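Key result, reporting period 2: structure in, sequence out.
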């Protein structure tokens, strides 16, 4: 194809910068996911009974003959999650990964991305696609980039693309040409795509271009998330994805680099689930964010490759039980260290499971005080740029917004606070 992206390795060590500047400041965003729906299986049959027997029970049980098995959050309800996260985090910049947005829910009908889950549609919209695009646009009002959770590796028999991908030898086959079951999820056999074969047929490019045309908002938001962007099958982690084709792991990795660059040519950063993921390359400088395996990029600066703490998955409008604890005790220091106005020296701001630290994403000077267990009369040193403050206003953070609870005097550059168990206070100079 004309102007084909390079598959060459990118040596990030030369500049310690991405190959091209990230379009999104991933290390300054709170990234989490919303699970909309889970789909069920096609039936009790499997092409690999031995694999099925070894899977966890929830993946071996058929849950709905290919139809939706469980509905968690509609598009309207997802916006309520985004609003609540906005309020309870004082407007932190968000990226939310919309999961199960397609067909009948999470993992449904891959490799196709062409259908939007009708169960998630708003009643006032003509189509579910209209509702999905509405959600992504509305989320921006709450400092949130909503994007799609997709998959480029998995394939299922009920997909509208399945027969074409089998015919063109895109799906993994053994040396005799028989399809290989790569895994089994939610009661369905899962087959795997050879990235190189799909690319050679122009179908990876078509999938990407068709999705952007269908949901142009993801291009406007400059981000997408690819789940399970693996480099081999689980059962043969050193061998080729498809023994029938014989493309080695390095050749598949070259194509994965082309895929990263193809998305970036269209103005989209690609985040992913893994750092390694049975791959030969961590793709440093091509992939800005990971949702797992953060310990494998501890040698990399966060602005080059990151994975934020407190990465939750929402299945209800209300927050997971430990949301505030992890957000304030883990994400707030992470954000502070990564902000140009922050520092690595946070010792005076954290005392065990108590914290009093600037929320540097706020337009005005703002401190957050949080305590896991609660305390009375603890003294905190204010930051140097608060030296002109002689008193501060205090507000309790709630799901509905900030609730004023009084004031505190500043004495010698310090304030004394009392914070309830599991409570977060917003502190602003008066």
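The corresponding designed sequence is given below.
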């Amino acid at each position: 194809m004309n102007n084909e992206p390079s598959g060459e390795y990118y040596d990030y060590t030369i500049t310690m910068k991405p190959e091209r500047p990230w379009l999104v400041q991933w290390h300054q965003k709170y990234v989490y996911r919303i699970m909309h729906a889970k789909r069920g299986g096609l039936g009790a049959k499997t092409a690999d009974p031995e694999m099925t027997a070894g899977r966890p029970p929830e993946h071996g049980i058929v849950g709905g003959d290919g139809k939706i098995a469980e509905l968690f959050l509609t598009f309207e309800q997802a916006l309520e999650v985004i609003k609540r996260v906005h309020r309870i985090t004082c407007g932190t910049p968000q990226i939310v990964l919309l999961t199960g947005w397609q067909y009948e829910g999470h993992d449904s009908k891959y490799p196709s991305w062409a259908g939007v889950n009708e169960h998630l549609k708003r009643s006032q919209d003509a189509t579910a696609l209209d509702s999905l695009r509405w959600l992504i646009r509305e989320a921006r009002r709450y400092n949130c980039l909503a994007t799609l959770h997709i998959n480029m590796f998995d394939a299922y028999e009920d997909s509208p693309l399945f027969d074409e991908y089998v015919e063109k030898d895109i799906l993994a086959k053994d040396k005799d040409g028989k399809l290989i079951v790569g895994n089994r999820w939610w009661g369905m056999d899962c087959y795997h795509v050879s990235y190189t074969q799909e690319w050679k047929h122009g179908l990876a490019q078509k999938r990407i271009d068709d999705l952007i045309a269908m949901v142009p908002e993801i291009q406007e938001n400059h981000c997408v998330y690819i789940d399970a962007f693996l480099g081999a099958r689980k059962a043969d982690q050193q061998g080729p994805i498809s023994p029938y084709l014989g493309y080695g792991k390095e050749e598949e990795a070259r194509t994965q680099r082309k895929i990263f660059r193809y998305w970036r040519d269209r103005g989209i950063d690609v985040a992913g689930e893994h750092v390694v993921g049975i791959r030969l390359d961590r793709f440093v400088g091509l992939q800005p964010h990971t949702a797992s395996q953060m310990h494998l990029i501890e040698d990399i600066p966060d602005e080059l490759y990151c994975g934020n703490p407190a990465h939750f998955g929402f299945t209800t409008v209300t927050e997971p039980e430990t949301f505030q604890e992890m957000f304030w005790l883990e994400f707030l220091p992470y954000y502070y260290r990564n902000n140009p106005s922050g520092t690595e020296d946070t010792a005076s701001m954290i005392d065990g499971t108590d914290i009093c630290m600037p929320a540097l994403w706020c337009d005005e000077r703002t401190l957050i005080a949080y305590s896991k267990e609660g305390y009375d009369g603890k003294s905190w040193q204010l930051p140097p740029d608060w030296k002109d403050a002689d008193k501060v206003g205090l507000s309790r953070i709630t799901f509905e917004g900030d609730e004023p609870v009084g004031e505190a005097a500043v004495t010698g550059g310090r304030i004394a606070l009392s914070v309830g168990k599991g409570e977060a206070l917003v502190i602003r100079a008066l």
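The longest helix spans residues 249-265. The domain at 324-429 is CATH 2.60.40.1180 (Immunoglobulin-like). This case is discussed further under Risks and Mitigation.
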